[in-house]
Amino acid sequence: MTSRLHRARRNDILLIASLVFLALVGILLSLFLRRDGAYCVITKNGEEVGRFSLSADREITYYEEDGVGFNTVRIENGRVSVTAASCPDKICVRSRAIRYHGETVVCLPHGLVVTVYGDEEGPDIIV
Amino acid sequence: MKRFFACFLACLLLIPLASCGGIGGGNEKYTAYTLDYFDTVTTVIGYADSKEAFDLVANDIFATLRRYHELFSIYDSVDGINNLKTLNEERSAVVSEELLDFLEYGKAMYEKTDRRMNIGMGAVLSLWHKAREEGLLDPVKAALPDEEALREASLHCDLDALVLDRQTMTATLTDDKMLLDVGALGKGYAVEMAAKQLEEAGITGYILNAGGNVRTVGTRADGSFWLVGVEDPNREGEYLSTVPVADASLVTSGSYMRYYYVKGKAYHHIISPDTLMPSEFFVSLTVLCRDSAEADALSTALFTVSYEEGLRMLENFPDAEVLWLFPDGEIRTTEGWQGEM
Ligand SMILES: [Zn+2]
User: Fold this and answer.
1) Segment B269-316, tens digit of pLDDT
2) Angle at B293 between CA B209 and CA B205, to 5 degrees
């Protein structure tokens, strides 16, 4: 009885260990496969309002139709973030700066989405 | 196990560090074009902190290309300098150090390519040039150059007849009918000179492209390699290979670049010194090596010999890699070709 319990517990431990291992491998893989971003696209209510290379620092402020509400988007050192906003929840401002292909920062109240895209990986030049 | 975990943790810690790369980033990419030199489009692509900084570099590059363009011209005289037109007309001329250096380089390449890269083939090439120009203007009357005239001209293509004297800075054509035509070498040489100027000034992050003579200086601003696509003449917008390079030159010679039709058959511009006709071995070939002048010379020379003979010629060019496209669509490369296919 006790030995069976032991075996069961050992199996549990093995299962958990292997799950943890797989999870770690997954995290590692996703880290390694993360593609560097090359540019970001900013949309407001689904419409593109800006597209910028991540290789040049800049700051752009997008205003609400009322001219008061705003989100300030900053590109710095290859990362893009929302550095200031008038929205009530400030989730966009608290989101960390993004730099990898596919990452986004969202401001739901203002319908603003910043998405990073990777290099198209087309050639720089043709011969 | 402990050690494994330590390594594992170390790896985890390294990931964010590794992905932080991109020192020297924050630079913007700029492009400048001109149609003024070597009858082709010249493009300069580069990373700089500002448009003004980029323009300074691009203008320096264009100034160097203009100087060589003027020196190499066989059609236009240039006030105050003796260029190749002067030399072709007067048979002997005092030339600038730049031109003398180039002519010396041309003679060296002539030997190095088993006399395939020949800047003294102007007598033959001028006949083809004339026939092509007339054929393009009036396609109905398009004709090949006269065979007898070609053969006669080919007797005056021995580059040993170009004699250089550094003491007096004089170049002399000792064969009365020899004509210089540096179309197959001049662009690559000029681009190399402009690139060297950047290197000496410590400027990196640039691509110079004179009509397909591509020379990269350094890498992209983020330290990654440039990607150069080798055009597939049979499939528009597709590449035979995509090659990551830094500080390297690529040149393609192709039968599809400059040609005219005679009775429905296309005749291109790379003339074999053996047959005095357009070379038929390949559709195109691309040379990759450090030096743009060498790449230019080699691409022309290799185009006029068989694949096997080309491999033998390449023994004189240990750092050169080549991609050949055969008429039946087959692609071959040298073993060291780094491109993705
Ligand atoms: Zn918000």
Assistant:
1) 999 999 999 999 999 999 999 999 999 999 999 999 999 999 999 999
2) 40
Q: Do A55 and B28 touch (CB under 8 A)?
A: yes
Q: Which of residues 18-57 of A touch B (CB under 8 A)?
A: 24, 28, 31-32, 34, 36, 53, 55-57
Q: Do A26 and A45 reside in the same domain of the chain?
A: no
Beta strands in B137-212 (DSSP E): 162-165, 170-173, 206-210
Q: Are residues A14 and A67 in the same domain?
A: no
Query: Residue B211: pLDDT band by 50, 70, 90 thresholds?
Result: confident
Cα–Cα nearest to A109, from A126, A90, A124: A90
Residue A1 above 60 pLDDT?
Answer: no
How confident is the model over B190-206, as pLDDT tens digits?
A: 999 999 999 999 999 99
- Residue A54 domain boundaries: 39-117
Residues of B engaging A, defined by a Cβ cutoff of 8 Å: 8, 11-12, 15, 19, 22, 25-29, 43, 45, 207, 209, 212, 214, 220-222, 226-231, 239, 242, 250-252, 286
Q: Total structural domains in chain A?
A: 2
The verdict on A66 and A52 lying in the same domain is: yes
Give the 3-state secondary structure percentages of chain A, helix then strand then coil, rounded to 5: 30, 40, 30
Query: Measured between beta carbons, which residues in chain B are less than 8 angstroms from residue A123?
Result: 227-229, 239, 242
Residues A55 and A16 in one domain: no
Q: Which ipTM was obtained for this model?
A: 0.79
A92: pLDDT strictly greater than 50: yes
In a domain, A74, yes or no: yes
Q: Which residues surround ligand 1, an ion (CB under 5 A)?
A: A 85, 87, 92, 107
B5-53 tens-digit pLDDT: 444 444 443 433 333 333 333 378 888 888 889 888 888 999 999 989 9
- Between the CA of A106 and the centroid of ligand 1 the distance, in Å, is 7
CATH number at residue A99: 2.60.320.10
Nearest CA among B123, B120, B186, B182 for reference residue B150: B123
Q: What is the CATH number of domain B1-341?
A: 3.10.520.10
Listed by start position, the domains of chain B span 1-341
* Higher-confidence position of B58 and A29: B58
For residue B204 the two structure tokens come to: 């990196």
Instruction: Say yes or no: A48 and A22 in one domain.
Output: no
Give the H or E element holding residue B243: strand B239-245
